[in-house]
């Protein structure tokens, strides 16, 4: 079976690696254009592109796949990509966190299958892993689905569940789901080869949408209950990183736990080797790993050596 692959970040690269190692022929890889990254803002290839080039795969990076795009360059690149797909010998397109909308013109060429990091129809959209943790879901998973023009609305082919533990962050849960997605897409294509890949429509009830994470969401409001903030610290690790403001200085908060405590929201209740305890609207949060501007992520005890908090409050 010949597979065109479309994806961009590490979540997708794990799936591409699984397909390649399973022996599927991959005549073309689509990924987003290189983006500036890091302190030097140098152009950086996506994780998918890096893997594809390292293994001799052809890579295309159109700005858009919509031939009706208003921007002439985007429209031209979309037409070129469309012609390439029309002339290519392949059986199926696999999509994972590509980041570009696949228009009807692309979906109509060959079957398109998506790897989605949630239990559909819950958490359709861009940030299903973040939102599952932030909301307090006790489980999530991966759905292999057929693609259509709606946002993650296509029929479901395979689904597997994963428990969300209290210690899970978006980073740790991402890695679990990426590995699971890689195994599941290989299984799905094996079933397709044998004519045994069935699908069922998504339920009409239980639909939720996982909006893209905005950097503005990172700032914590300590008037909220501690449990809400604890989930956000985990959900925003590694991106964008939860933040607290201390005397006008933004401090990133990477790890925390719920503890008993009472005081005015943002009040410092304790600051020692065991952690930094901050009162919230309900309960308290013990901050375990923090980072000051320009510094490294540090355990609370090490952080306090260079950033004393006596008499200060979080806001």
TrEMBL record:
The record's section on InterPro entries has: Fmt, Formyl_trans_C, Formyl_trans_C_sf, Formyl_transf_N, Formyl_transf_N_sf, Formyl_transferase-like_C_sf, Met-tRNA-FMT_C, Met-tRNA-FMT_N
As one GO molecular function, the record gives: methionyl-tRNA formyltransferase activity
Reaction catalysed by this enzyme: L-methionyl-tRNA(fMet) + (6R)-10-formyltetrahydrofolate = N-formyl-L-methionyl-tRNA(fMet) + (6S)-5,6,7,8-tetrahydrofolate + H(+)
Q: What is its EC number?
A: 2.1.2.9
Q: Where are the transmembrane segments?
A: none
What residue stretches are annotated with the Formyl transferase N-terminal domain? Answer: 1-189
Q: Which UniProt keywords apply?
A: Protein biosynthesis, Transferase
Report residues binding (6S)-5,6,7,8-tetrahydrofolate.
118-121
Q: A Pfam family in this protein?
A: Formyl_trans_N
Which stretches make up the Formyl transferase C-terminal domain? 212-307
Q: Does the keyword Protein biosynthesis apply?
A: yes
Does the record's keyword annotation contain Transferase? yes
Q: Which family does it belong to?
A: Belongs to the Fmt family.
Tell me, what does this protein do in biology? Attaches a formyl group to the free amino group of methionyl-tRNA(fMet). The formyl group appears to play a dual role in the initiator identity of N-formylmethionyl-tRNA by promoting its recognition by IF2 and preventing the misappropriation of this tRNA by the elongation apparatus.
Cross-referenced NCBIfam families:
fmt
The cross-references to HAMAP family, in alphabetical order and at most eight, read: Formyl_trans
Instruction: Please identify the protein, giving its name as recorded.
Output: Methionyl-tRNA formyltransferase
Organism, per UniProt? Massilia phyllostachyos
In the UniProt record, what gene is named as encoding this protein? Answer: fmt
